[in-house]
Amino acid sequence: MNKTEEDVFRVYQETFKGIYADLVVTAEKKPAGILEQLEHCFSHFAVAKTSADHTVIQENINRAYGHIVRASLDAAKLLWSELRERAEKFVTDEEIRRFCINTSVGVVYSKLQNAERLSLRARRSEIENIGIDPELSIAEWCEATLAYQELYDLIDLDRVKQYQQAKPSTS
Asked: For the CA atoms of 59, 64, 66, 67, what is the dihedral angle to 10 degrees?
């Protein structure tokens, strides 16, 4: 299906920007793979805007769309990975889980199971939508990411710091 300039701009404005902004703040870097996808998107868009051949224009708009969707999907998955790693680092530590989390262990396990379930669903959605509509799985990855963010938000980072400072060294 042919895409339009508006489709490219819509994905950029409504999907990519927010995910990418969160990723850059969370990861404290701009991942090279995403920058490469943006460069490819811009290059195809430039060709589309400077060509007189309608076929070339359409092919390049479609490719630009593909690259901005890919950048969005990659950013969503990298943000998910970053938040998953942060949350699980604390949640899997029995002592931190016991002393530094602002809720019961049951709630922690429930939120962890939910995040894992949503992650599996996102991955299945991504596999099912390859070559069909990868935009559909971006929302699934965002939902899984939010579940890990909720889990991470239960961790009292001040208590973690105090606990780690008070803990005797094993060396």
From this structure: 140
φ, ψ dihedrals at 101, nearest 5°: -115, 140
pLDDT of residue 133: 84
Nearest to 22 by CA among 89, 65, 77: 77
Rounded Cα distance, 18 and 115, in Å:
20
Instruction: Give the chain's residues under pLDDT 50.
Output: none
- From start to end of the chain, where are the E strands? none
Q: Which distant-in-sequence residues (6+ apart) come within 8 Å of 44 by Cβ?
A: 60, 61, 63, 64, 67
pLDDT, residue 7, reads 97
Asked if residues 129 and 69 have their Cβ atoms less than 8 Å apart, the reply is: no
Nearest to 8 by CA among 82, 52, 62, 70: 62
